[in-house]
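Justification of computing resources. Each target in the renewal requires a structure prediction run like the one illustrated here; the chain below, 129 residues long, is used simply to show the kind of job we budget for.
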Amino acid sequence: MARIASVDLPKGKAIKIALQYIYGIGPTLSQEALTATGVDANIKVKDLTEEQVGQLRNVIDKQYQVEGDLRREVQFNIKRLIDIGCVRGTRHRMNLPVHGQRTRTNARNKRGARKTVAGRGQRRGVGKK
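Resulting structure tokens:
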């Protein structure tokens, strides 16, 4: 099993897909790393040689910020936004969408399950008084 950046890559997947299991590597960075090392993108992880795994490990460690370092930087950026008190930091603190999405009807995942309010709405067959 190939282990790159402290992540065990799945054996049965193509290497271009398996590299995306590493936090911070998406399709584009995966393709760039494979091009830099000269590894075929469609080869399965279980068919990689130790030399190819070593080359990939070196390229990813030296050129890209992944896993723990990247997670730490993202958390630091969010903490900075909260500390300076900007709108984005306030939205993070209140656990609401940050990028301008509407919340009146959507954002159920962020806001949690619906909280039923007594006396809200009209009952069937009852008119206004």
